[in-house]
Design goal:
With 158 residues, this protein is mainly alpha-helical. The protein folds into two domains: 75 residues, no CATH class; 79 residues, no CATH class. A two-stranded antiparallel ribbon has the order 1-2. The longest helix is centred in the middle third of the chain and has 27 residues. The N and C termini lie far apart (58 Å).
């Protein structure tokens, strides 16, 4: 089993992968990921297993809040046609098109940046495709810019 070191202001602390797995259910790829998780949840590492317990508690609280938000969004899906789509990524639809569309785009951008495996990438691509329909974007036509001869020549005749 590997050990993961975390550099903190108050020292360098090492956590065993067995302890990390027992508290978090997975082992990070490296110590940097663990350090980032501590930082994200405002936990100062001390080198004790209690740090991992605190991290687990904070992560669970955040996850629970997201699940609760999704449940509320599912219950409010009659508010607007995109409510269930927003609920899938933890955004509560308000019924205001501009606000909901902006919130959806912000959330999907953040979430898709963290997608590392093919399944997650495919999921977010599907969500983006659904958004085109849910937000009514597939019905809108965009005017295409006219191609000048110079552009045509540069693209096709060179």
């Amino acid at each position: 089993m590997a050990n993961f070191s975390v550099n903190a202001i108050n020292g360098v602390f090492t956590y065993s992968s067995a302890n990390i797995y027992s508290y978090l259910g997975r082992v990070p790829a490296n110590g940097t990921e663990l350090k980032e998780a501590f930082s994200e949840f405002n936990i100062t590492p001390t080198g004790k297993a209690d740090d991992l317990k605190k991290l687990n508690t904070k992560m669970y609280e955040e996850y629970s809040a997201q699940v609760q938000q999704q449940i509320e969004n599912q219950n409010n899906k009659s508010v607007c046609p995109w409510a269930s789509l927003c609920a899938q990524i933890g955004v509560q639809a308000t019924g205001n098109y501009e606000k909901d569309y902006a919130a959806f785009n912000n959330a999907i951008q953040l979430l898709s940046q963290s997608a590392m495996d093919g399944q997650a990438m495919a999921f977010f691509a599907g969500i983006k495709s659904e958004a085109q329909k849910a937000f009514g974007l597939s019905n809108k036509t965009t005017e295409q810019q006219q191609i000048t001869f110079d552009v045509y020549k540069a693209q096709f005749l060179s």
